[in-house]
What we know:
Mean pLDDT: 87
Number of helices: 20
Oligomer: single chain
Helix content: 40-55%
Number of domains: 4
Shape: flat
Amino acid sequence: MFKKNPAEKQFSLIEPYYHLPKYVRDALHNSWAEHFFRSIFTKIDESRFAVLYSENYSRPNAPVNVVVGLLMLKELNGWTDEDTIAALYFDYRVQYALGISDFDKERICINTLGNFRSRLYDYSEKHGRDLLGEEVSGLTGVLIELSGMDTKLARQDSMMISANCKRMGRLELIYTVNANMVHVLKDKAPDIIPESCMHYLQDKDKAEQIYRLKKEDIPEKTAQLLKESLALYKQVPDALKDSQAFKNLARLIEEQTDECHSPKDDKDQSGSNMQNPSEPDATYRRKGNTPSVGYTVNIVEARDNEKGLSVIVHTERQPNIVSDTELSLNTLDADLKGVETMVSDGAFYSREVVEKALEKGIEVSFSALNGRRAPEGKLGADKFVIDPDTELIVACPGGFAPVSASRNLGKKLYNAKFNKEDCASCPLKDSCIVKEQKRFNAVTITDKKMIADRYRSLLGTARHQALADFRAGVEGVPSVLRRVYRIDDLPVRGLVRTRIWDHLKVIAYNFKSYYSYCKKSGASPFYFLYFLRMPSRRFSFSRALVCY
């Protein structure tokens, strides 16, 4: 049963706070604990997580705002779950940051943290809604509002994250998936295991089947193991078809065999295929000369240069076969907290990205552009003048109007024809992309080329150079997430579970950035004035003066 835990606390007279010397209280109010309580804990929307609990009358949940706040502090300090619970009970700053004054009413054990993460995972798997991601986005908005940060300018970058598994060879993959299914059947329905699959239960069978195999025998062994996969698939009862072992088996058959259930050629294997049954969401990609099995994480960081403050306004984890352009399209659908200009590198460029950004009212800039350049000495397509209302070419680079012009929206083409006499007298005729035809000179320009040439014309300008220099700063964010928050070393597997940990690391990054800004700007308030402004902890004015 969900029970809300109000962030407003009435401290008792025996609260340890009252027995601290003045200089200790001052240090406490100037520490991260005061800022965390004020800007994070009191802003956590507990009602968002009510769907994780039963609506029936039953034992109430552990305080959601305390659990969420504790998970954030865990990432902020790099603690294990054990360290986190120890800090909760023995570090007064943690208790103060979470507004805890009575442990008898707010008992939290190490299983509370794991159970809450499991609830988030199960709900996301069932409903496709990322509750923690929504909360982190909301808290990031709070930090932006409290700091008065200007988020108009943002920069984007992606990073490759290796999965906590190795890339299996094809034969080992098939064997392992089959063996996992056989062992599930052994525990649940041992009588239906096919006779041809009983060898999976024998000791050292894997070495006999795979590691001692001669190279010329690999195709025959692959066909045999896939035949056993099909035999297992037909025997699995309906009660076990929701198991991960069966889902892996069904996926294996789909990816490794053709319509006739014969083994596919090795050359037909895709990077999107399952690489290891222990982490089926991980995919294979080769970026440059570096192969990787795992995921890609896209990051959008807003930066206020005047305040010297940066926060991550959007993050997304996907299998590593998802391209940067697709990630960029997803980013434009996200809540970007008022971003008006977003700078990326050339890998994020596509015509679709530019068009969608225009629809969203966001300016996009790219430090470089991929694709084929215009021929040397030739003018770009952007030099032709387009009427914004009719979307027709109304003039060539030399200023001559066309004889006729048309726009093919279906094929996304601009077409125009020009008088040969005008072209003959044009000083730009040698560099123009208009082609000579029998009656007229004609030009056909695709939307893709028009947009690409427009952006290429911006390269080298003063504004482009300034934005490119600004974008370079985002390269440090992956480094911080790797070194400080250890995003490569998550103790969980799978896309949904790792996203939960990503969100907690992002809010830790943002709060740390916000707190550093507060310290530099001297934004820490005198605590008794703070209590007058914020009703979070109810102190009377006279009591506050006496304590101070």
